Amino acid sequence: MNCYTEDFEEYHEEEASDDDYGDQLDRILVPKLPVANFDHYDPSRPPVTGEEYLRRVQLEAQKCPEVVVANLDVNQFTPNQTLIIENSNGFIRAKPESTPSVDWQRAQVSEFSHVRTSLARMRAHRPPGTAVDPIADRPPVRHRSMSWWRDYCIGKRSDHSSDSDSDRGGGGGDEDESDLSTPTDTPHNSSALKREKRAKRESNLPLMSTICALTQDEVIVLLSFYAKWCQQYRFTEHFGLWIYALLVALEKPLPAEVYSTLRDLSRVCSECRHKIGSDCDSNVLISLNLIICIIGRYFDQNDMCDQ
């Protein structure tokens, strides 16, 4: 009983102390000086009283910018400068004849957001364990190297292959060995070899089942691979399909290194667009503009947008 009484008294003491603190706070917030009413203040007339003068100072202070930069001639320091930092981020803006309109960019971002929502809804409504992995019969994830993904996405010996890969035999060693080991003196063997070469050249499309089977780590890795492939090979509409699908599957929030990959990809796409100019295939140009638009406007890389 005594313990209960002591606890009850301590509780009331704490409550009383809170009330005292509130009273002290109210006394502190009480204005000590009268505040003038400036409802009828005319700033065009010179101040007559001290209150009007303070009001004039307040209005003039509001017009001053928060940051003021001095206009100095820095050319005199140029000979003494030892480090030059470029402000350019490497992004090449589109030429006037290739620049997409702002309305087109907004429409593409809206459609892209709708596609991402549809993909997320499809993943959420799919019962667990029913997803079909179209690449499940391929090598395990830990054995899927960059060359394996290149063969799967863009084909082993497609028209994207570079001369350096041909010289090294990269991605085409199996085809060269088949040419040497398979006799071609009969029509049957010749047609079979052509079918084999055609199968090796075939690439895979980014189907919904394939994209849903990819993990986030694989999506990020593939985006980094495409940033390199766009520099090594000729950009085609097939590249645009894969990059768009990977961006749809990319889940937010993103770590800093993924934003760096997206910026590299946008920078490379701007270089490809600058090289091909306006004489290229319209679908290729639209694909490049679409990728740059999505990375810049949807993923908030505003300094790498076509204004």
UniProtKB/TrEMBL annotation:
Annotated region Disordered: the residues are: 1-20, 157-199
What does the entry give for GO biological process? spliceosomal snRNP assembly
Compositional bias segments (type: Polar residues)? 182-192
Pfam families documented for this protein: SIP1
For bias type Basic and acidic residues, the affected ranges are: 157-168
* GO CC term, one of those recorded: nucleus
Organism domain of life: Eukaryota
Q: Which residues cross the membrane?
A: none
InterPro entries documented for this protein: Gemin2/Brr1
Q: Which family does it belong to?
A: Belongs to the gemin-2 family.
Q: What is this protein called?
A: Gem-associated protein 2
Name the source organism. Answer: Oppiella nova
